[in-house]
Amino acid sequence: MVAGILTIRPMGFSGRGLAVLVLFVISCAGLLIRTLPPARLPKGVTVLWLTLAIVAAAALIGVSRSGTSYLFAFFVAGHIGYRLETRAALVLATVCGLLCGAVLYFRLGPGYHELPWILGLATGTPVLAGIANRNRQRAVEAAISAAESAERAARAEAQAAVLTERGRIARDVHDVLAHSLAGINMQLELADALLDTGDLDKVREANDKAHSMVKESLKQAQWTVHALREDALPLLESLTAMLESSGHRDVLTVTGTVRQVPARVTQNLLRIAQESLTNAARHAPGGEVGVELTFADASTVLRIRNRPGTRAVTRDAGSGMGLIGMRERVALLGGTITAGPVTEGPDQDGWQVEARIPG
To answer: What pLDDT does residue 213 have?
Structure first.
């Protein structure tokens, strides 16, 4: 614009100079569309605005006598390619070239048959650069949008992982504390009630039972920490150590080719085994326990079976959430779990829990 003010002649406030000044102002206004975001102008208004800028630029070429008036046509054609879709841009750029060629043809007069059209049509060629810039800009915007979408997806995935981990920790806390604390609380309440009767032997029995449950809870807490550690032992070794520490020796039977399983599978199967053994000790005290670990081709199967108890059952206030927690663990791994009474065989009238994890 500054170059135009300094070079385009004549430019004034009367006669031909006024016409040049008006066309110059209209051409400058036509270029100001570059500063407006595309979303702020309807497509029809944009096309009309650019068409008016083309007419003004071509007329400025015909009216002015010298200077850089022809540059406005080049600038407008370039912005047409950037602002409009390819088909509309090519049509409008062709109109720009023909109009400028016609103006130059009548301005130069006889003797110049080819030069006006060559120069005129050349004014429309910057549309190609505009189209290339527009495509590049859209590619950049698409890349930024894809990166933002990927970032949002990563954040959502991380949040889901956090929620999943919170749920797993909640289940672990329940498995370790809910049953044991409920039982300990019941034994202590029983001891308080027996104090009023003066039966000290039963008070001591209830107190000893509470102490025994505390020790068992500490042992379970240790195994929970062990299962949460990243450097936990493989499934077979961990399960064997847990069974031995809980007093169940030589009860594990392994079938199939032993292989490594993911840490999540190991952690959840250990918790299922721990919950099943706790339930067996609570509901069938003294009953024999058998554990089977099967490494099949497409799954890993853990089966815990206990026979009927040989001692009296202490009725404690369990939370009833143990089996629900086991089902949630297996569901997160895409597996299945069944739990129910044994109806036949040497373990008849006992209880069995079977968890099957794919992979």
So the answer is: 75
In our burial notation (b when 16+ CB lie closer than 10 A, e otherwise), range 157-180 reads eeeeeeeeeeebeebbebbbbbbb
pTM above 0.90, yes or no: no
**What are residue 252's DSSP bridge partners?**
291
Contact criterion met (CB below 8 Å) for 177 and 217 = yes
Beta bridge partners of 355: 302, 337
- Please name the residues in contact with 188: beta carbons below 8 A apart, sequence gap of 6 or more: 206, 210
Among 27, 76, 31, CA closest to 56: 27
Closest CA to 2 of 24, 22, 23, 33: 24
Looking up tokens 């299962």 gives: 227
For residues 286 and 98, give the distance between their C-alpha atoms in angstroms, rounded to a whole number: 102
Q: Is the CB of residue 220 less than 8 Å from the CB of residue 176?
A: yes
Q: Do residues 321 and 173 make contact, with C-beta atoms less than 8 angstroms apart?
A: no
Res. 113 pLDDT band, cuts 50 70 90:
confident
Q: Give start and end residues of each alpha helix (H) in the chain.
A: 2-7, 15-31, 43-63, 71-83, 86-108, 115-122, 126-173, 179-197, 200-228, 235-245, 263-283, 322-332
| Measured distance CA(91)–CA(317) in Å, rounded | 83
Q: Tokens 């720009």: give the residue.
A: 96
For residue 122, the SS3 value is: helix
Residue for token digits 């602002």? 83
Euclidean distance between the first and the last CA atom of the chain, given in angstroms as a whole number: 72
Can you tell me the distance from the alpha carbon of 313 to that of 109, in angstroms, rounded to the nearest whole number? 117
Residue 259 clears pLDDT 80, i.e. is over it = yes
What is the C-alpha separation between 316 and 313, in angstroms, rounded? 9
Tokens representing 169? 């920790």
Assign 12 a pLDDT band (cuts: 50, 70, 90). confident
Q: What pLDDT digit, counting tens, does each position of 267-313 carry?
A: 888 888 888 888 887 778 878 899 999 999 889 999 999 988 777 66
Does 178 score more than 80 pLDDT?
Answer: no
